[in-house]
Specification:
Protein name: Tetratricopeptide repeat protein
Number of helices: 9
Distance between the termini: 63 Å
Order of helices and strands: HHHHHHHHH
Number of domains: 1
Pfam families: TPR_8
Structural class: mainly alpha
Number of strands: 0
Largest sheet: none
CATH architecture: Alpha Horseshoe
CATH class: Mainly Alpha
CATH topology: Serine Threonine Protein Phosphatase 5, Tetratricopeptide repeat
CATH superfamily: Tetratricopeptide repeat domain
Keywords: Membrane, Transmembrane, Transmembrane helix
C-alpha cells in the first residue's frame, strides 16, 4: 500500500486558498442567507438541521432494510432536529407498520414542507401516493382518489396502477 504524502509547496497553498474560500462562502450563507438568519437562534437552527440530516440518513439505512420501526425512531429525531422532510418517510414507515392515524398525520405534515423536492426526488408525488393509500385503507375513497390522482399528475406511475385496481 502506498503511503500518502502530505501536501507541500504550491499544492498546499492552492488547497489553503480553496479551503478558505469555501469556508468563507459557507459562513456567508449561514449568516446572511436571508434577513432573519443573522440572529443566534437562526444560526443554531441551521446547526441543528445538520444533525437532523444525520439522523435522516441513519433512518434511511433502516428504511432500506425494511426495518420500519427502527427507521421511524431516526426519522422522528430528524424532525425534532429541524429536518421536516423526514415527515414523508416517517409517514411511509407508519403506513408499513399499519399505524394509519400516525401515517396520515405525518404525510399531511410532509405536504406542508417547502422545497421537499430539493431534498428528495419525487417527494410530493410519493407523499400524495402514500396518503392516497392511507385513505384507501381507511375506506375514505373520495380522499384516496383525490390524492392518488394528484400523485399521478406529479408523475407517480404506481398511482395509476393503484387507481386502476380501485375502480
Amino acid at each position: 500500500m502506498e503511503k500518502k504524502q502530505p501536501l507541500r509547496g504550491n499544492k498546499l497553498i492552492i488547497f489553503g486558498v480553496l479551503f478558505t474560500a469555501f469556508m468563507m462562502f459557507v459562513g456567508y450563507k449561514i449568516l446572511f442567507n436571508s434577513n432573519d438568519e443573522t440572529n443566534i437562534t437562526a444560526i443554531n437552527q441551521k446547526l441543528k438541521s445538520g444533525k437532523g440530516t444525520d439522523q435522516f440518513d441513519r433512518g434511511l439505512e433502516y428504511y432500506d432494510q425494511k426495518k420500519y420501526a427502527e427507521a421511524s425512531k431516526y426519522f422522528e429525531e430528524s424532525i425534532e432536529n429541524g429536518f421536516p422532510v423526514a415527515h414523508a418517510l416517517l409517514g411511509e414507515c407508519k403506513l408499513h407498520l399499519n399505524d394509519l392515524k400516525s401515517a396520515q398525520y405525518h404525510l399531511i405534515q410532509a405536504l406542508t414542507v417547502e422545497n421537499g423536492e430539493n431534498e428528495l426526488v419525487g417527494y410530493y408525488s410519493g407523499v400524495e401516493f402514500n396518503l392516497g393509500v392511507v385513505y384507501d385503507l381507511q375506506k375514505d375513497t373520495k380522499n384516496a382518489i383525490a390524492h392518488l390522482q394528484k400523485a399521478k399528475q406529479l408523475g407517480n406511475k404506481d398511482a395509476a396502477v393503484y387507481l386502476s385496481k380501485m375502480r
